[in-house]
Each structure stands twice: as structure tokens, then as C-alpha cells.
## 1
Amino acid sequence: MRYGIFSDVHSNLEALEAVLACFKKERIQSFVCLGDIVGYGPNPNEVVQRIIGLKKIQITAGNHDYAVSGLKELTWFNDFAARSIIWTKRHLKEENKNFLMRLPRLIDGSQFTLTHGSPRDPIDEYLLTPRQYLDNLEYFRTPICFIGHTHVPSIFYSDSLGMIQHKPLGDGEIFKCDSQAKTIVNVGSVGQPRDGDPRAACVIYDSEKFEIKCLRSSYDIHAVQDKMKQASLPLFLIERLSYGR
């Protein structure tokens, strides 16, 4: 099975459509979304409905999803994020808010584990260091765990010498996983990358080959920025889309 795995769309419809077009070209059979469907961007309702409409999809909740549905306090967010959440709460349809509220924090599947932040702390933890990788190993049983939240595509694994490795995943890069060891894969962000590459990020996982492939897709950033300006969303959030930071 080939899975199209993505995260952190953040109400960016143009970026989502670019990633879905990439998945179509790659003949993806099943989808995974790792949360933060909304927040920051100008099209929360359209993005939620587009994702709901995908067939064969597994979805976990993100911290922004919980915030706009009332399950997380705004005190957890910086001013820019909080302002975008308040805007999103005002514009999000009740049916979409209820959908986000019902999303699970973690999915423990037969082949892989899915969550937004980390297996240990599914909603909030930013998994950034080898120490955190080690601390999270006891919290999932599958060979692979897919996460998002940091907006940076990368992978944590233990090499043949038992050394913990953490490496970024570049566009088109393929990583062969070890079925006898545990790997944590961060799939990056669709709608607001923060690794210096403004293109939308996603991952393809081939469960038969046990391979991860990272892909980047260009999209009309200026169109999204124009809509954000019309919505009076924070200028900082608008400008950072151009730089992927």
C-alpha cells in the first residue's frame, strides 16, 4: 500500500490542492492527515471539507484544531497564533468545528502509529532532539510513527551501530526504514513550512518496500497571502509564507 501522509495544512487551500495533485500523480491509495488542519490561513471551512471528502483517510487532531473547537486554551499560543485562532473560531462553521472536536489524539494502527506532536504527548510536544526520540520509544509499539507539529520534514532512527540519528528529509529523498527498529518520521507542513523551503511538504510511505519519500510542491503563495490580507490576519503570518520560516 502507498500512503500519502501530510500534516499542518493550516487553512491553506492552495497548498493542500498542490499536495493532493502530487498524490494523484503518485497514484496514492490511502491518505493520512496528522492534524492542524486549521489555524493561520484564510480557508478553514474549505480545507476541512476537502479533507473530509477524501476517501480512505485517517486523521488525528492538532493543537490548533483543538483550540478552535474549544478543547485547548489560547494561553498556550503566541499572539500571532492566538489572533488567527480567534479569527478561525469566528468563521468556522459549526459542523466543521464539531468534526475537529471529535478527532483522536493518536491512532495506534497495525503498521504504524499516527499523531500530531509525539506519542508521549500527542497534541503539544515538539519532537526535536535525539533525547526526545529515545524518551518516546516506549509510547508506541509499531516500527514507524508519523508526526507533524514542527513544520520541518525529518527523521529519527537508530543506525546499525546503535547511534541515534536525526536528519532532514529533502525533496525527492527516499529513506529505507528498518523493520526491526523504531523510526519516527516528521512529515513537515503543507500550509506553513518552516525549514527554509516555502513549498508544501508531504511524505509518501510504501508499506511493501518499507520506504519513505519526501516530496515538495509549489503553489500560488501570493494568492493565499492576498486572502490573508483581506481577512486582516497578522502580517507576520502572511510574510513568512514567502520564506518558509
Note: The domain at 2-240 is CATH 3.60.21.10 (Purple Acid Phosphatase; chain A, domain 2).
## 2
Amino acid sequence: MDKKIILAVFALAAVAISALLMIPSTPTDTPDTLPWKITHPSPNSSRVFGITLGESSLDQAEKVFKEKTEVSLFKSTEGKMLVEAFFDELNLNGLKAKFVFTVTIPADEIEGMFKRGLRINNTPSGKRITLAADDLVRVRQLPIYSITYLPTARLEEAIFSKRFGVPAERVRETKSGAVHWLYPQHGLDVTLGDGEKPLLQYVSPKDFELLRAPLLSQGEVLH
């Protein structure tokens, strides 16, 4: 996958979150769907929420959560594109949360999806495109690259320390003041803000540096 597209995933996560719609859901109770239940089928892969990043397809995720996603292609004002899938208000083991998935798509293929798009909705940060039916089928067969998990509750820092341990690194964003707890061994970034709800981003450990590098360029490492 083009590295520029991969890096754009994390910069566009906040935009994706604002587009989520409120849809009620039924509980899904299984230990695999706990946010701190991270396993590693191989040294460079991660499995969380019953999904193996880089291997499990969007269709498989829908079967795990027993819900259909809302899928769309987003093109930023800078011209960067990615396909996102939204699960909103899922109830996993009593923990309500929103999810944003990104899908691994080659650059030439995502360009074709953009050209075949059915509708374009303009937003302040770019364009959101409704995909054609055949492209939606294709997207649901492709592997999931990253997961963004947004619990609806304001969880305390102590919960993350207990569940994940001491982070390998903490980085504070210069502009917002948000602090990122980084766990490269899990491919996990826990973002915490003063009084704000946390945000957790998961990638395969082999891709973690692509997540970390933009943070370092926009913030400072805390000691």
C-alpha cells in the first residue's frame, strides 16, 4: 500500500469520527471483543476485537459485530484518499463505543473507486464519496488495516495503566495538548486529553512507526 495513503489514515481519523451517525445496537459479549484483549498470532501481527489486522476482512468484522458498516471513500483537500467503514454505538461486553475501520487498498484501485463514485458530499476538510455497488462488495473482501475505537465513557488513565501497563513512550501534541500513550509491541496508540474521552488506534506492530512518526513531528516526547 502507498505509504502516503497509510500516513493519511491517522491524519484523517478525526474527520471520520465527526461523520458517525447514532445507530442503536445490541450487546456482543465475548472476551475477544474487549479493547485490552490484544494477542499476536505472529510477532508482526495483532488481533483485537476478534479481528486480525492485515488479514481479517471487513465482511468478517461485520459477522463478528453482527452489524453492517457504513462505508465511504474520503478525499481530503490535499488529495489524499482512504476508504473508511463506521460502526456506531456498538455494545461490546457492556462497553459502548464507536469504531472507524480503514481498509488496505492499492493507490491505483482507490483512484478507480473515486471515479466510479455515485455521489459526492462536500465537507470543510474534503469530499465524502458514496461507492458504487461493485466497489462496496470489493471493499468488504479486503483486509482491515487499522481500527479506531472511541468509548462513549470517560475512562480514567489508571484503567489503561492497569490493562496495558506503562507505555513505551508518551508524546504530547503541541497544538491540542492531548497525550499519546504508545505501545509499539501491540501496535496501539491511546490518546488522552484533559477531561476528554479517550481514543484508541490499533495497527499491526510492523506498521507502528507509520503511526508514531507523524506524532513526533507535531509534538514532544514526555519524560
Note: The longest strand covers residues 81-92.
